Amino acid sequence: MIVPTPFRLSLFALLCALFSVSAAAADTPRQIVAKAILTENSAARREVIGTLVGQGDESVAALFTAWREDALFIHSSADGAKTPVQLTGEKDSAGRQNALRVDDGQLLNGPDGKPLRLSASELTVVQHDRMLRLSMKAVIDLLDLAASSPAKRIQAVQTLGFAQDAEKLPALINRLSLEQDAKVKIALREAIALIQLKSADDAVKLAALKELKDLHTLASTDFIKAAQKEAEAAKKPELAEAARIALGAVENHRTAVNFFGTLFRGLSAGSILLVVALGLAITFGLMRVINMAHGEMIAIGAYTTYIVQNVFGSGLALSPFGLSFTIPGMNTTGLAYESYFLFALPLSFLTAAAVGIALERTVIQFLYRRPLESLLATWGVSLVLQQLLKLIFGSNNVQVSSPSYLSGNWTVFDVVFGWNRVFVIGFAVVIVFGIWMILTKTPLGLLMRAVMQNRGMASCMGVRTERVNMMTFGLGSGLAGLAGAFVSQLGNVGPFLGQNYIVDCFMTVVVGGVGNIAGTVISALGIGMADQSLQQILGNPVLGKICVLIAIILFLQWRPAGLFVTRSRSLDE
Amino acid sequence: MITNASKFLAAGALALGATLASSHAQETVKVGVLHSLSGTMAISETSLRDVLLFTFDEINAKGGVLGKKIEPVVVDGASNWPLFAEKAKQLLEQDKVAVTFGCWTSVSRKSVLPVYEKNNGLLFYPVQYEGEEESQNVFYTAEAVNQQATPAVDYLLEQGYKKFYLLGSDYVYPQTTNLVLLEYLLSKGVPLANIGGGLKEEGGKVISAGKYTPFGHTDYQQIVAEIKQFAAGGGAAVISTLNGDTNVPFFKEYAAAGLTADTCPVVSFSISEDEFRGLPAKQLVGQLGCWTYFQSIESPANKKFIADFQAWLAKSTVSGIVKEGRVTCSPMVLSYDGVYLWKAAVEKAGSFDVDAVRKALQSGLSFDGPGGKVTTQKNMHLTKNVFIGETKADGQFKIIKSFDNVVGEPWLKGKYKK
């Protein structure tokens, strides 16, 4: 005689409580599925499926999936015997495949003892309805408790917990005793406590509320609130008080999550502002050229990313010209395809820099001492570039897919750190460091600073100011291109992409103090933080933005030259 | 004298032509097409112009309307609302069109409405809208709120979802739809605490029915974080009336935060097959849409419609028309249905006169369109089928539920109030 362990007992109790069909227990899970398929009445069929709860194996999930996808069939032999089958293997010319018996997973043999080859058209598809699919889900939910991936286990546990179904409690308690993973353990404790909240016993409820207070998960809020209401209605002050304390713990946790979440989001929003505005800070701040086409440089970077992505993938088609490129051997997939972004980064820098240099040579070099004309001319250039992009790529937005290494997240104590956001913060740090290195540690940086401080004097000293101007403008445009590669991962890529960013860019640079990189960094982070905090506090993105703009206007009244004022000894200023 | 005589002769010939009917096939009737062919709405609206021109060609090839060929007068509203009114005036007063097919945004419809009412013109409006309007001069082939938003909510409730987060673009359609949805959800027994997105005062008084972001908004970090907390307890869904390309940053952020169609599905009312061409399909798989037509409908009428439209596109000579990767979507089909309904009404009335045509329209005409049978109603709306679809990676929808013959009902605000 087998000693009944608590688990076996509870499972047995569970099964007995759920179903009185004890005879089915003798069948293997596969046989039960086959039996369910052959059951005509849909209620009876659901009951047979129900016997699988807690005792199915991996094969059941696969069979259910096939069932839901209309891939299970009934084969009727000549003598009228019906056999549920699943078609597998390669199709031959007549569309026939091997048939696996559902009840034992073996090949179905014909009267001659050889495996039958069947096609879907000569078989009857096994039907299913919504209620049946729900019954299947109940079985699969419990199967996933033993899944190998912790994420899957957590999801299964949560599904069960949120449903507050007391019948699933023994299975969860059993799982908790076996579970090794810390996160799954917490999810299990939460699920068990949530189910116990529904218990009729006040002591159990009280213990559950204590447990929920210790766990203070965000997911439990609604359930605790419901329990509190119930307790108040039933005039049970002790329970209501426990619920209030648990709710307080959850709210404290939520405040902390929101605080750190907003901090992170502000940092990332600021980093994006910084990345898009740095190029402008160089051309506008250092060179005193108001480049209205800065936004289009960003768009050029984004479109370069799009082109690189398509070259790595299935090829590029430019509709107005009827052109399409495919590079043989490039049609990559998987990680090789996703590595496109690493190539797109330097290429978007180079492309935008090249366009910037061309712009400097053809337009801006004639306007260095005429800021208003340069504003007007570059605005014209920006319109031309927009239409050019529209002509080449069409007026619809193009799709840029995010590589998988940029589209996940880390969740630490309920604060979500999106990888793309983490990446943009890191990237902003690298760029700022790079700019600082170029400006202070390279000969080009030395010449740049010399020309910016006193063009005439530098020229007298033999500095080729024209060349330095060109390189500086190229650098600023290239940075815009890099920013474009980034924003393509966050939002839309269309011909008018630049318009969305140009105001933010000027705002950042002006607040920071024209001509000062450190000011740009501080103002970008400040604006980003302020924006996200106000959004969080006011609960409205539009109001948040308006408040930031008002704050900026007031700030500029107080300090018209921005955060940091650059002093120069030039006579012309 | 001579000119007068020839005019008299011509008039005589006309009268003769009218009596002999079909023998004078070169006679035409002017029909207006009023859409944005430039500006931000051009992306969506040029498709409607294309499908209208295709429909006119199809009808002309079969002999036209009352023996007259349709002569389209295409004008560009340029996504500029005052310009829409000017162009409408031009169509009605200068070109004297018999009917106009046009407008996409609610604001463009509101701009041209006084023009049509003043001149007693007739406008067919094909794009899902917020309701709360019923003009004798507009025929709404569009989905009313009860033909898109409330069936979608019914579906979600049936699937066991208990919490709903309302999100939309900041203009008239989402704001009004969300107000109606809020009332509808409350009437279905969903407590106010389970409806997210809106701003609530201390006493639970509702200030705004949903969360709104401006057009072109790119930063959805806060909103997605809020949805994530909202959905933490399970059983939550997002009802999105976000319009246009703001959907891209929203869905990118949504996916990055680890939210999926399994944990918290989004049902969108503004993403159709046509919009899908510019969206990252991969990140939208499994999310829901609700329209009165999907390209994936398996019916002979729909298959023929798609094939004919593609064939027309291939040989079209309309300047600047996009031929690659074209799909069909609900506003396109409702434009197509509208032209045929107008044709049926004209034939029933035996005249192009607006009052006669309106009377015929209100008498309950039917047309078997690509999305199934549509029937006109007295309140200038349509009775039609509604479908709920699940998005697939190829930009198409898999139909998972349909509601047959839903009667269009424009006045919903206050109807569900408890």
UniProtKB/TrEMBL annotation, chain B:
UniProt cross-references to Gene3D superfamilies, sorted A to Z: 3.40.50.2300
Alphabetized UniProt keyword annotations: Signal
Cleaved signal peptide residues: 1-25
Keyword Magnesium: no
Statement: the UniProt record of this protein carries the keyword Signal: yes
Xref: NCBIfam families: urea_ABC_UrtA (TIGR03407)
Protein name as it appears in the record: Urea ABC transporter substrate-binding protein
Taxonomic source organism: Nibricoccus aquaticus
